[in-house]
Design brief:
The protein is mainly α. The protein folds into two domains: 158 residues, no CATH class; 33 residues, no CATH class. Helices cover 75% and strands 2% of the residues. Strands 1-2 form a two-stranded antiparallel ribbon. Strand 1 and strand 2 form a beta hairpin. Helix 2 packs across helix 5 and helix 4 crosses helix 6. The C terminus is likely disordered.
């Protein structure tokens, strides 16, 4: 298994995306302040807080930050796979897992906060998930179209090069797919004949 195949593994990509998300959040010091219910254990609040930093926001700056980091990490499967189905499904899985555990833990350990804020947060979570799906599909299709166009241009260039390398013996009319010095049919020196006919 080579390095490219390792990166094409869905689990590996999800881990890479999650690590990059964490690094960006830590680098910019982003933190969403949760108002936990009274009596929640410290360890539980730390886990929930950690997961909340992935998707929750309370300011316009936080909204832009969350959307930008998710769109950035969603580029990884798009460029690795060059397939819209694999791209959006991988991005959806990466997005689904932290959100699933966040809402499960929040509803269990901080039910009052969960019940009072669930509609707002869940609506934005769904919206961000939909944006990631459309972004993944749209950009994958655009990249595929660009690459297809480039391949088509390269094929046309190869046809032009191939047609330029064709030679016809001016003496006997035999056609070659190369540029030989002598005609295999009449043994005439093709270059000499072409020069003479060209003058």
């Amino acid at each position: 298994m080579n390095l490219i195949e390792v990166f094409r593994n869905r689990l590996v990509l999800i881990i890479i995306q999650t690590l990059i998300l964490n690094l960006i959040i830590l680098f910019f010091g982003y933190k969403f302040n949760l108002n936990f219910d009274v009596g929640i254990e410290f360890e539980q609040s730390v886990i929930i807080q950690f997961l909340a930093n992935y998707v929750f926001f309370d300011t316009l700056h936080g909204l832009f930050f969350i959307y930008i980091i998710w769109l950035l990490v969603s580029l990884i499967p798009i460029f690795i796979y060059n397939n819209f189905k694999k791209s959006y499904s991988t991005n959806l899985l990466t997005f689904f897992f932290p959100n699933f555990f966040l809402y499960v833990f929040l509803s269990r350990y901080s039910p009052f906060y969960f019940n009072s804020n669930f509609p707002f947060h869940f609506m934005h979570t769904i919206l961000l998930g939909m944006i990631l799906i459309f972004f993944s599909i749209g950009l994958s299709l655009v990249i595929k179209k660009i690459l297809k166009s480039k391949i088509k241009d390269q094929i046309e260039e190869l046809h032009i090069i191939a047609s330029k390398s064709k030679t016809v013996c001016p003496k006997c009319g035999v056609e070659f797919d190369s540029l030989p010095k002598f005609c295999y049919n009449c043994n005439a020196e093709i270059k000499e004949i072409e020069d003479k006919t060209g003058n």
